[in-house]
Amino acid sequence: MNPADSAEHRFKETDVRTRVPGLSRKRPVYGQQGRATNIPIGSASSRNLKFKKSICRRCNDTLTQPYDEAWQTLSAHLHGRWRGIAAARRFDLSKPFPGRTRAAALNVHLYFVKLFGCLIVEGNVPIDLKPFSYALLNRQPHSELCLQIINAAHVSPIIAAQASDLYAMRNQHAVSTGPLGSITSRRLA
Fold this sequence. Notes:
Number of strands: 5
Helix content: 25-40%
Strand content: 5-15%
Shape: globular
Number of domains: 1
Radius of gyration: 17 Å
């Protein structure tokens, strides 16, 4: 096993630039991470937009690049057509990925497998990371993760990007970690 010597971006730099045009040190946005609030973010490549080191450099820089590129393609498609997609309440994956829809859908799924793995490591969430590693290394879907894209414009018109809370169920226990990283567990009936 390789050491975790690379920090993954929480949000793709292209997504940050799309959502916050004109971002600079003179015109920063402010982020919240854990209990820290109003962290100035002056560029799309800010270290404040990265997870702590939680993945090996080879995996982050080489192995998972097709996953990153698939999300970048889908994200650009969604951003460019959002009004129509929101009105229709659906979108067709074959539009951004003609002729390679299944492979691209798997790559998008694996991009979020990587992000959730980084989130789990950073939050010290008691979830086994072996299925995450296996999925990424073997280009296989993670059988316990499902991706859902929603229209969150009703949440706040000023939120540029937001990581969702992490909710998981393991061994008939509900484990959740909220935006502050607090962990709760309760037995399911």
